[in-house]
Structure formats: C-alpha cells, structure tokens
Design goal:
Blueprint: E1 2-6, H1 11-22, E2 26-31, H2 39-48, E3 53-56, H3 62-72, E4 76-79, H4 86-91, H5 93-113, E5 118-124, H6 147-164, E6 171-177, E7 179-181, H7 200-208, E8 215-218, E9 230-231, E10 233-235, H8 236-252, E11 257-262, E12 268-269, H9 270-281, E13 287-290, E14 299-300, H10 305-311, H11 319-332
Parallel strand pairs: 1-2, 1-4, 2-3, 4-5, 5-6, 6-11, 7-10, 8-13, 9-14
Antiparallel strand pairs: 9-12
The structure holds uridine-diphosphate-N-acetylglucosamine.
Length: about 350
C-alpha cells in the first residue's frame, strides 16, 4: 500500500515509518520539522536500508499538500503531525486548534479530492480526562481537561463526521495512545523532547545521564499502592506495529470507523519506573518527592481488549525492555538540543 505519513520524523511517527517499510508498504513522509530533526530521516533510512521519500511542508499549506498528494497518490494516510505539549497548549490554545484541528481538516479535504479514503489518526488517552474507573475502555466518558486534549477530541469528531457524511467512502482508525515510551532497539531513533522534558520517562533518562540533578516525583498521596501516579507505559515499537495492523484492519473489514485504545492493560507507578530504570542503568537514580503536579490524575491504564480483538495486536514489550531501549537511545543519540 502507498502510505503518506504526516509527522513521520516525530517520536511515534518515525517508529511507525520503520514498521510500515518492514511490512512492505511504500511510505512518503510529510514533515515541517517544527518539533523533530532532519537527521531522524537519515536514521530511518539506516534502519530500513531504503531511501525515504520526504516532502517538507506544513499540513495547513493546502497547495503544498495537494502537490504532494498528486505526486504520491497515497492509498492511506497515517496522521501524526500535531503539537503535543500540554503546558504549551494552555498558553497557545489558538495555535493548537489551528494545527491540530485546522491541519486535520485541510488534510481530510485534500484526501477527499484525491480519493484517498483511509486515515489512521493519532489520538490520546488524554481525551478521557479524569477517568471514572480503571481500566479505561473506549466506552468510557470523554472529557479532556486541557486545550491539547480537546484538540485531539475535536479531531476525532471531525474524522467521524467525515466518515458519516452522505456518499463518503472514508474509513478511519482512531488510536488512543496511553503513555508512549521506549525507543527503537537499534538506539538510532527515539524521543527527542525540546527543553526540559514534561514527561516522566525522558526526565528519568536525562537524570541518569547527568543532564538533570534529580527526578521530581509529583505526588505521593494518590490512592495507589505506593502513593505515586500509575500509568500504562506502552513501548513505541508496539504502538508503531498497531498502526500497521490498523491499516490492514481498515482494508479488510467492513467497519469504517474504529476507535481503539492502545495500551498494555497494566499500570506501573512512578517509583516502579524509576526502580526499573535504575536496575538497567546499574545505579540508583536520584529522586525527590514533591507535591502533586496541577492537573495530574492518580491512575490511568487501558482496557486494550478491543484493539487486541480487532487488530490481532497486543503490546508485547516489557517494562524492562522499555527501560533498556530508552537508555540505549539516551546514551547513543539523545543529546540535548535546546
Ligand atoms: C502527559 C499529558 C498527556 C499526554 C501524555 C503524553 C499532562 C497532565 N498529561 O500524560 O496529556 O497525552 O503526557 O505522553 O501533562 N511525573 C513525575 N515527575 C515528572 C514527570 C511526571 O512524577 O517529572 C509523574 C506524573 O505525575 C505521572 C507520571 O509521572 O504520574 C507520568 O507523567 P507524564 O509522563 O507526564 O505523562 P501523563 O501525565 O500521564
């Protein structure tokens, strides 16, 4: 299949490009490098041994996107291109809606023009906001607590409305990721947070590497076994494989809209993550308990049974593999670049 990947040099995007090529698909990456690095493209080529078709453009640039689609004529699009910082989204909400919602709308319009009728959309468990209970199934109430989360939810609605439009032939898989972590086992691609990381896993590896003094553990009074926050950490290579499976499912099933949780189905606490990383690094990684981070929830982990059944997919990599791969990447490549 010919697959256009928007945001293909980003964290989940780059790993998905690798898995798509491994599965025999032809890939064209569309990127504006607003939060990713050009050398990631070369790294993808090193891993796959295949030159990568790349169009440098902003998905809001309709003419550029049209020209790209006209050249490549994709059978499907996997759409990652988006802004993803929760804190930045509270400061720049209009920009977040512009890129995440406006960009998706332009993409859907152009896809229709070129009869490209399959989309896989990068959504997030953040659409659930504060879940009423764990594990969280797709039927749980949505109610994102941040502008970033709301742009993801509006993106989902937009896509479902396009699927349901009279005469439309669009099929869509909406994938709600829990906490993406880890890196490619080669150590050649991984997460590249700009500035001080907001997310726990890159903060841990940067602390282990001596770039940060200590990890701040946000909150130790949650109703969890050790009092720290519990999340469903899913290896990025497992996530990437789910995108390939979602393309196959859209091509082979009559169902035109799939909304699926992508998680492992088990939660780990902040302290469990720090301990596992410490065992991989071979020394204790310093941390300090602090108060809760505003907006954080105690626990959030997935019921991934629908994705297991519909995609024939399950997250296979263990927490140990997650930590080993993230640490290999940190040591090999993840130089600070702010
Ligand atoms: C965050 C975002 C979520 C986004 C996801 C992407 C918020 C409120 N939520 O989720 O919208 O989809 O990232 O991966 O930002 N923690 C620490 N110290 C740190 C950082 C985090 O103790 O320096 C704790 C948090 O309190 C939480 C856990 O680690 O319990 C995971 O945090 P994080 O990696 O930021 O992910 P989420 O908050 O789950």
């Amino acid at each position: 299949m010919k697959v256009m990947v928007t945001g293909g040099a980003g964290f989940v995007g780059s790993h998905t490009v690798v898995e798509l090529i491994a599965a025999g698909h032809y890939v064209q990456v569309v990127e504006n490098f607003c939060n990713s690095e050009r050398w990631i493209v070369e790294r993808i080529e090193r891993i796959t041994g295949v030159p990568l078709a790349l169009d440098e453009l902003d998905i809001r640039d309709r003419d550029a996107l049209r020209a790209s689609m006209e050249r490549f004529r994709p059978d499907a699009v996997i759409h990652f291109a988006a802004l993803k910082s929760v804190s930045e989204s509270t400061q720049l909400p209009a920009s977040y809606y512009d890129v995440n919602v406006g960009g998706t709308a332009t993409l859907l319009d152009v896809m229709q023009e070129f009869d490209c009728n399959r989309i896989v959309f990068s959504s997030s468990a953040t659409v659930y906001g504060q879940p009423e209970a764990c594990p969280v199934a797709e039927s749980a109430a949505v109610g994102p607590a941040t502008p970033y989360g709301r742009t993801k939810l509006v993106g989902e609605w937009l896509i479902r409305d396009c699927v349901a439009a009279p005469g439309a032939s669009l099929g869509a898989a909406i994938l709600r990721y829990f906490n993406p972590v880890g890196a490619h086992p080669s150590g050649l691609i991984g997460e590249l947070p700009r500035g001080v990381p907001n997310n726990l896993a890159p903060y841990i590896t940067q602390t282990a590497a001596g770039q940060r003094d200590y990890i701040r553990v946000f909150g130790d009074d949650y109703a969890t076994p050790d009092g720290t926050g519990v999340r469903d950490y899913v290896h990025v290579v497992d996530l990437a494989k789910a995108h390939v499976a979602a393309l196959d499912a859209l091509a082979s099933s009559d169902q035109r809209e799939l909304t699926l949780n992508l998680g492992t189905g088990r939660g780990y606490s902040v302290l469990e993550l720090i301990e596992t990383f410490s065992s991989v690094v071979g020394r204790p990684i310093p941390y300090e308990r602090q108060g809760r981070r505003a907006g954080d929830i105690g626990e959030c982990w997935a019921d991934p049974s629908r994705a297991n059944a519909v995609l024939g997919w399950r997250a296979e990599k263990t927490l140990l593999e997650i930590c080993e791969d993230a640490w290999r990447w940190q040591q090999a490549s993840a130089l600070p670049h702010d």
